[in-house]
Amino acid sequence: MEVVELSQIDDARRQALIALLQRAESADDYPPLPEPQYHAVVDDGGAGEVHDGLVVLAEGEGGLAGFGLLSPARDGSTAIHLVIDPARRDSALARELAAAAVVSATEQGDRPLHLWAMHAGPADDDLARRHGFEPERDVVQMRVPLPLADDVQRATRPVVTRPFVPGQDDEAWLRVNNRAFASHPEQGSWTLEQLHERLAADWVELEGFLVADDPDGDGLIGFCWTKIHRGRTPVLGEIYVIGVDPAHHGDGLGRALTVAGLASLAERGVRVGMLYTDADNEAAVALYERLGFTVDHVDRSYRRAAVG
């Protein structure tokens, strides 16, 4: 297997990576990589640590059979994501690719490793154990029919929202987001560059990027950013990011903004709402269950400690 810096991938190989991602998503009906990793592979550029990563390439008789993406995380660890061609999943390729990815990661330095599995199942648990990983974090995807039930909406405090205005709300949004997610491994510590990169994505609809102003005139106090996955079956309307300034926790604003975002999705014709949350965030899971959400699947991170 060959290891290549992601930033040095040539056009031909990038197209092969993209084709493999498309085959995997078509077979599974869900993205084979999280959004930052997906765009780092597909878009050839942009902000963030993922673009400093490595790719372990597994070639087969018919071309690219699989790859492992190694990306540095903010906590000093290395994240590993594996993508296997649907036609090769009954082979030993996953074990071989995982082993090669672990070797490549450890050669970069003695640091903790995180192996991620999208839609994790028993086979993923077994693969992780074979290579010294233990389950560490479950991220659940939850779904709800839209529009929400009338009693849910009646039981929710009203909140006035407006669309995010680029160039006007950037710094205020970053302040609220980074306060709300101060300890979050992915959503915290966003930069202006990252926000601008995400706003430039072709899926962004500003009418679905809702912000709430403080009635007393002290700026933004919360937001609900939605995303419509139009190529999915069914079409999914995601609560992409929702955040409340910690100074306003306990005011019912999180529930109100979630309901406002789901109402916005329903008004745009979406009939299934979706979001992700950490399984151990009991308060968030309980809130979403009260709104009618149920768990659809789990994405799991497995951890292998540094040796030294």
What does this protein structure show overall?
- With 308 residues, the chain is α+β, with helices and mostly antiparallel strands.
- It has helices at residues 11-28, 35-43, 93-107, 122-130, 150-154, 170-180, 192-199, 253-267, 282-290; strands spanning 2-5, 54-60, 63-72, 78-84, 113-117, 134-145, 162-163, 209-213, 220-229, 236-244, 272-278, 294-304.
- The protein has a 12-stranded mixed β-sheet with strand order 1-2-3-4-5-12-6-11-10-9-8-7, with helices on both faces.
- Strand 10 (236-244), helix 8 (253-267) and strand 11 (272-278) form a beta-alpha-beta unit.
- The longest helix has 18 residues, at 11-28.
- The chain is globular and about 60 Å long.
- The mean pLDDT is 91.
Strand and helix map with partners:
Layout: E1 2-5, H1 11-28, H2 35-43, E2 54-60, E3 63-72, E4 78-84, H3 93-107, E5 113-117, H4 122-130, E6 134-145, H5 150-154, E7 162-163, H6 170-180, H7 192-199, E8 209-213, E9 220-229, E10 236-244, H8 253-267, E11 272-278, H9 282-290, E12 294-304
Parallel strand pairs: 4-5, 10-11
Antiparallel strand pairs: 1-2, 2-3, 3-4, 5-12, 6-11, 6-12, 7-8, 8-9, 9-10
Give the gist of this structure.
This protein is an alpha+beta fold and 308 residues long.
- Per the principal axes of the C-alpha atoms, what is the gross shape? globular
Which structural class best describes the helix and strand composition?
Answer: alpha+beta
Low-confidence stretches: none
Strand content: 25-35%
Helix share, percent: 25-40%
Mean pLDDT: 91
List keywords for this structure.
308 residues
